[in-house]
Amino acid sequence: MALRHAVLAALVHGEASGYELAKRFEAGVANFWHAKPQQVYAELTKLRESGMVQAREVIQQSRPNKRLFSLTEDGAAMLEKFAAAPKELPTGRDDLMVAVQAVDLVDPAPVLENVERCAELARQKLAAFEELEQQILGGRDEATFIRTTHHLGPYLTVQRGIRFQRDTVEWCAWVAEVLRSRPEGRGRRNQ
Amino acid sequence: MALRHAVLAALVHGEASGYELAKRFEAGVANFWHAKPQQVYAELTKLRESGMVQAREVIQQSRPNKRLFSLTEDGAAMLEKFAAAPKELPTGRDDLMVAVQAVDLVDPAPVLENVERCAELARQKLAAFEELEQQILGGRDEATFIRTTHHLGPYLTVQRGIRFQRDTVEWCAWVAEVLRSRPEGRGRRNQ
DNA sequence: TATGATTAGTCATGAATCTGACTATCTCCG
DNA sequence: CGGAGATAGTCAGATTCATGACTAATCATA
To answer: What rounded mean pLDDT belongs to chain A?
Structure first.
């Protein structure tokens, strides 16, 4: 299980509420992992039961009460161990790729639509990441930031996210161009 | 479930044995999806039970017998429907990113090792994909190939794989440089 | 002639992830 | 005042994915 470690990693720079964490993992603000709110809450419960995080109840007047979670010593140790353990490359899984792989058999028109829709989604995500990047840099230039910050991790991962989304946009544009350049006729060329 | 569709997509260009499919999905020769052999076999069984693929027993003298699977009409229809259904962006999940995200808290040295190890893995995968690319092109130049082939899908997806691995190598190299450029001191800067 | 590698699969079980449907409180807008 | 929307969470169940341990035949090689 790696959601466990992703949640711990999200707490590296201090405490956060379950709701806040849930939003980060949902929207992709946490560019390094994705999960639904329910999963995050469930994981936090388990992590608290096993003593990896601690919770602090905060009574609010203006909003429903919340719990702020933070790493314990054990949690930090667990994360340390995880970070040092050898990692594999991510196992590629992408529905869009499956659709593109099948483009010789199926009607290419809806595949093309899908490709263009995903390009648009990637553009949106890219914009969100670039905003996050600026927020992290806070006006400093990269070299200065890297030399002086204590929050390097999020900057390194957001750069990965930016690269990935840019690449997605480019690849989608290329695929769209290729698909459009082909004779209009239906697929099924190999039957 | 998308493994289901990935298996169907792998059969777009004709029949294949379970063993062959299993190897493709394992090694990453199927650059568009990853799965363990047992999963592929299990999926093929289910797909046959539900009539999406058909099997043909082939008796071999020189090797154990095998079953060759191919798409049925229903399977092709299912794939068609899947390819046309709107797709989401892949939900990012990468253990290495979790480790990098945590780099401010944990010892950066093993993270750096991990980053460099993954760069090497990505280089290997890149080489495999580039070989596959050449195999697909078969000496033709890209423009000619695109105009004339009936196997466009695999070429489009392998290009994505190549781009992704290249980007991985570049990002890892950048991260390694950044981590090495920092003061040697241990993490835990924010405690 | 034994030994390991490759081909070709199967079974059972556990872990991780996704989904839909819920409960509440508080703020803002018309 | 009434409803929409954000905040803050919970529960149960289903799907999907991963793992280890198997069987069994053939081939190359030492």
So the answer is: 92
Residues 6+ positions from A4 with CB-CB distance below 8 Å: A43, A46, A47, A52
Question: Is A46 exposed, middle or buried (CB count within 10 Å of its CB: 0-12, 13-18, 19+)?
Answer: middle
| Low-confidence residues in chain B, pLDDT < 70 | 28-29, 184-191
Tell me the β-bridge partners of A71. A53
Domain B3-84 indexed as CATH 1.20.1250.20: no
Nearest CB among A99, A103, A157 relative to B97 is that of A157
CA pair distance A152, A51, nearest whole angstrom: 27
B12 contact to strand D (CB, 7 A limit)? no
Tens of pLDDT, residue by residue, chain A (191 residues): 789 999 999 999 999 999 999 999 987 767 889 999 999 999 999 999 999 999 999 888 878 889 999 999 999 999 999 999 999 999 888 999 999 999 999 999 999 999 999 999 999 999 989 999 999 999 999 999 999 999 999 999 999 999 999 999 999 999 999 999 987 655 444 44
Q: Is the CB of B54 under 7 A from strand C?
A: no
**pLDDT tens per residue, range A94-136:** 999 999 999 999 999 999 999 999 999 999 999 989 999 999 9
* Strand nucleotide closest to residue A34 (CA to C1'): C17
- Looking at residue B29, its pLDDT comes to 67
d(CA B173, CA A167): 17
Cβ–Cβ < 8 Å for B16, B10: yes
With CA of A45 and C1' of each nucleotide, the nearest comes out as D10
* Cβ pair A106:B164 closer than 8 A: no
User: Cα separation of B144 and B120, whole Å?
Assistant: 33
Per the CB < 8 A criterion, the answer to whether A21 and A47 are in contact is no
Q: pTM for the whole thing?
A: 0.93
Tokens 């991790």 found at: A153
B:90-119 residues touching chain A, CB 8 A cutoff: 90-107, 110-111, 114, 117-118
